[in-house]
Amino acid sequence: MESPDSVRVAVNIRPLISAELLHGCTDCITVLPGEPQVQIESHAFTYDYVYGGAGSPSFAIYDDCVAPLIDALFHGYNATVLAYGQTGSGKTYTMGTNYTGEGSNGGIIPKVMDSIFRRVETMKHSTEFLMRVSFIEIFKEEVFDLLDSHQASLSKVEGASLPKPTGPGRPPIQIREAGNGGITLSGVTEAEVRTKEEMASNLARGSLSRATGSTNMNSQSSRSHAIFTISMEQKKIASCLSGVNDDTADDILCAKLHLVDLAGSERAKRTGANGMRFKEGLLALGNVISALGDEKKRKEGGHVPYRDSKLTRLLQDSLGGNSKTVMIACVSPADTNAEETLNTLKYANRARNIQNKAVVNRDPMASQLQAMRSQIEQLQAELLFYRGDGNASFDELQILKHKVSLLEASNGELRQELQERRLTSEQLAQRALDAQVEKDKLVTKIELVRNGKSWDEIDFNQNQDFDLMKTYLLKIQELEGELIRVKSLSSSKCKRISDCIDEDEDEDETSKDLLFSSGNDYSSSDEIEDNEKELEHSTLQEKLDLELMELDKRLEQKEAEMKRFTSSDTSVLRQHYEKKVIELELEKKALQKEIDQLRQNLANISSPSDVGAQKLREEYLHKLNVLESQVAELKKKQDAQAQLLRQKQRSDEAAKRLQEEIQRIKSEKVQLQQKIKQESEQFRLWKASREKEVHQLKKEGRRNEYEMHKLLAQNQRQKMVLQRKTEEAAMDTKRLKELLESRKASSREASSAGNGNGPGVQAILQTVEHELEVTVRVHEVRSEYEHQVEERAKMAREVSRLKEESEILKHSELRDYHETMSAEARNSRIFALENMLAATSSTLVAMASQLSEAEERERTFSGRGRWNHVRSLGDARHIMNHLFNLASSSRCSLRDKEVHCREKDAEMKDLNEKVVVLSGLTRQLAAEKAALTREVKLKVGFISYWC
């Protein structure tokens, strides 16, 4: 089980960046879900934390790893956060050492500053704080103060060998060891800070002075190791120590927090760095981690090479010393960086075995004062004993001290009770405030009563407010329920969408498989589209014909009705009816006149008793009745004639409307006929263009067939080359592994024979040959690895280009866009390239694993270990002679190869000149051929004209 003070290790896996995606890189790291375990090829590692990929999110690094260190800092423990990894893996971004004050990038250092000063703000009434910061960098094995305003800044370094100058008259920074074993820096600037802004300003000022440079892996690469240190001293305030033992009054806690951003840990050739940058490697740190992480060496008390580098010297407390340390290993998931990633993971795995011994750091003077105070108390107790009557014993003094402590404890309880009473007082004050509010409400009610309102109205208003509040609460509950329902519906829809996406991906895979089964002619989907178009045209034609027939039927019906209306002479009939009505009106007037005359005569008969008059009266009455009946009959006839006249008017209006409808139907018929004609013309044009397009597609189909055969041959050729290269790489890695195993076995044999006279000369020479063979094999595997990376990058660029062309053609509205390749051929090529990329990725990861193991064994076997079997000066002379013979033989062979290459270059130059001459002759013959062809055509035309 790990000690609580062991180094905690976190792995941060950044996502693939755009440049890596452009080169077709894929993930080579697998994270076990729910477990801090990382696997790359056949290597598996377990750490304390894993972020990125399938692990925890990267923003949780601070809360999980760094926040406990801040707590330890306030308790007096030293702490260190160490970012380790290759260039471009995100170390500076994770640490936040590129902070410029223009906004936080989410790094650790800005969060540390914010957390420290928030905590200081909460403790300022009980504790005094003194904080200082320093910012240094180690560049080319020199320590530079980034907060020294007199030093010239060097923000860009292009591999020059000029060192950073120091300030005028300022002594260089020196590393010293304190009396307690701690490491300190002499001559470095420690700026006192009181606010977060001051600390951020110092960080930003130092960040601008860091040494950076452009490499193959990062345009703004940190080419130095940077250490930002926060020193904190804290002391309890005297006014807050009443009732507390005075021994703690002068207790001062001193602690430091180191935030370390290291330079890249990769090979120099990988980044393209040159010159003095080779000194920036982390070999010394790797040796220290290896020595501290080896449990056997640690138990035996083996030497730890802290003094091999200034970096390891400064980190002596952080690695195996008085500090709580967290190491953040930043790695890239790209398969092209698999070798560097594997090396970083191995170092991080070793770092987990490092055991630190963190203790609370107190001010030495305060500790000495506390010891003196204890001694004074003891002497005072003894003095009281001897000055007394001699009856009081030392135990009684201890009892008195115990009573004092009890009184102090009672005092503490009383203080606690006082605090509770204060809380009770605050609660009572709150209740008084509520009572005051209630009183104000009552005063308001009284004012309303004085203004003439009744208590019922006031209660009604309050009830209205209460009802309104209840309504709001119900509305809030409804909205919350609706929100829950919408969230559940959204989650179900998201699930359905993800299922649809999976189905679409399956369909994409199926369509990708069907690409190879497509024929040379235009696809079946185009035929279906043509058939649908023709069916649509025929259906529309039938529909228009039916509409035209319906219009014809309606027109015939309307015309028949019109004929019925116009079969008789309406004008003559109308005149007849009007004449008849007039005649009846005249006859009616005549009869009415006669009736009036008879009534007048009847009134003139004066003597009712006269028989003659009576008879005449009766005649008049009879005649009057007859005339009235005639008038009534004439009135009926007149009404009938008027009714007939009105009916005739209505029929005339209906005939007019019918005529208008007939005209409208005729107009619709003409429009429908024009539409049928237009539709037929459009269909004819579409049919012609479609036939032309089909002919063009057939022509392109033959071209696509040729392209498909050509691409299949190219894919097969590339596949065979890739397979051959893969087999060769596998053989090289296998041979390299066998050589490394045999070298390990030979080294064990040499060490077991160390007590004898040592191996013979022949065995030593064989060992030298074996070492050279290992070096050559490593070089071959690395060259093949780099060649595979370049080839994979070319294939990835081709895939990207083909996909861009496909997208352009998909969204392009230009119909005359010249396609360099058909869609089927393009998709087939993309599919083949993606398969080859996947195969290349697995090969690269396997080769990177073998190269990492080779470098690790080379590092452990290099130096003295390689020559342990050399026991005498004679053996060394034999080795030197043998190496000289090999070097001279290689030099002579190289000379012969150079001569041979020059000869071949001369031959190639002669061949190129001949090619240029032949190209000129070919162009001349082509021009002559064209001229003769024109002449023949003219003669043939002339002969055909006269014949």
From TrEMBL:
The Kinesin motor domain, residue ranges: 6-354
A Pfam family it matches: KIF21A_4th
Gene Ontology cellular-component terms listed: cortical microtubule; microtubule associated complex
Source species, domain of life: Eukaryota
Region (Disordered): 508-534, 742-761
Molecular function terms from GO: ATP binding; microtubule binding; microtubule motor activity
InterPro entries named among the record's database cross-references: Kinesin-like_fam, Kinesin_motor_CS, Kinesin_motor_dom, Kinesin_motor_dom_sf, P-loop_NTPase
PANTHER family (alphabetical): CHROMOSOME-ASSOCIATED KINESIN KIF4A-RELATED, KINESIN-LIKE PROTEIN KIN-4C
Family named by the database record: Belongs to the TRAFAC class myosin-kinesin ATPase superfamily. Kinesin family. KIN-4 subfamily.
The protein's name in its UniProt record: Kinesin-like protein
Source organism per UniProt: Gossypium barbadense
